[in-house]
Amino acid sequence: MSNNAVSLGWPAPAKLNLFLHVNGRRADGYHELQTLFQFVDFGDWLDIKVTDKPDIVLRSNSNMDVAPQDNLIVKAAKSLQQASGCSQGAEIWLDKKLPMGGGLGGGSSDAATTLVALNALWQCGLSEDELAALGLKLGADVPVFIRGQAAFAEGVGEKLQPVDIDEHWYVVIAPDAHVSTVEVFQHPALPRDTPKLQLCDLLSSEWKNDCQKLVTEQFAQVANALAWLIEYAPSRMTGTGACVFGQFETEQQARSCFAQMPSTFRGFVARGMNRSPLMSRLGEL
């Protein structure tokens, strides 16, 4: 690819945890989980320009309150340089649409898109498995975004099994609250004893999020958003919050609910996707 060309429109989609069960705490302090990841057709966007110098330059429309060297996009790019021996660099523009710390996987998705896009643009030739291994070092959720398939996850979230599930419409509300994943998992009141089940049994049982009760008790904003949304559709929290989502059969139903949302809430309407839009973008190269 020529140096002055900018590769536009790399999607970094949000994910929802359609259920999240905490099965126990391991000796190393991490938690055993069972969760179901599905992408939605809404998220951040990255534009990338390959450069001859090895510097990684990140620009964004959001006020990034993390130092550049701590940003997951920069970390992802540098880890790929190191793993592949690539001497090229990149200028990356991030159009940030997903809230930070919302349980939508925004930072992990940004990192995954960076790895997938630069692996292609720099022509590093790393396999999906190699990229996923790099991604896992950046965060437990990064590999699911790299593989780009809706998945059932176990362990600490690293054991992935692709699934094909219904692609519903969702109204997602992002409460004005920053929930710390670390604090949720360290909290003594978090239930940690949901029995492990086989995937077929999980898919046919009622879905829940084991972190939801704790978070709604601590954050009134999350509780209020959930209380409003549940009047319209089956609704849950995603990840450790703060975002909540309601599930609808049709786009019209979702948009009708969204139109009635109180002006104090912010959020979006999106469709569930079993195949990440990142895979389609990669296929265009």
Question: What's the arrangement of secondary structure elements?
Answer:
Elements: E1 6-25, E2 31-51, E3 56-60, H1 72-84, E4 89-95, H2 106-121, H3 128-138, H4 142-147, E5 151-154, E6 159-162, E7 169-173, H5 181-186, H6 199-204, H7 212-218, H8 220-229, E8 235-237, E9 244-248, H9 251-259, E10 267-273, H10 277-283
Parallel strand pairs: 3-4
Antiparallel strand pairs: 1-2, 2-4, 2-5, 2-10, 5-6, 7-9, 7-10, 8-9
Features:
alpha+beta, ten-stranded mixed sheet, 28% strand, globular
Give a verbal description of the structure.
This protein is of the alpha+beta class. It contains ten helices and ten strands. It has helices spanning 72-84, 106-121, 128-138, 142-147, 181-186, 199-204, 212-218, 220-229, 251-259, 277-283, and strands at 6-25, 31-51, 56-60, 89-95, 151-154, 159-162, 169-173, 235-237, 244-248, 267-273. Strands 1, 2, 3, 4, 5, 6, 7, 8, 9 and 10 form a ten-stranded mixed beta sheet that branches. Helix 1 packs across helix 3 and helix 2 packs antiparallel against helix 3. It starts with 5 loop residues before the first strand and ends with a helix. The mean pLDDT is 94.
The stretches of 5 or more residues where confidence is low (pLDDT under 50) are none
Helix content: 25-40%
The H-and-E topology, N to C, reads as: EEEHEHHHEEEHHHHEEHEH
Please tally the helical runs, counting DSSP H or I stretches of 4 or more residues: 10
Derived from helix and strand composition plus strand pairing, the structural class reads alpha+beta
**Radius of gyration from the alpha-carbon trace, in angstroms:** 19 Å
The amount of beta strand, in percent, is 25-35%
Overall spatial form:
globular
Number of strands: 10
* Sheet with the most strands, sense and barrel status: 10 strands, mixed
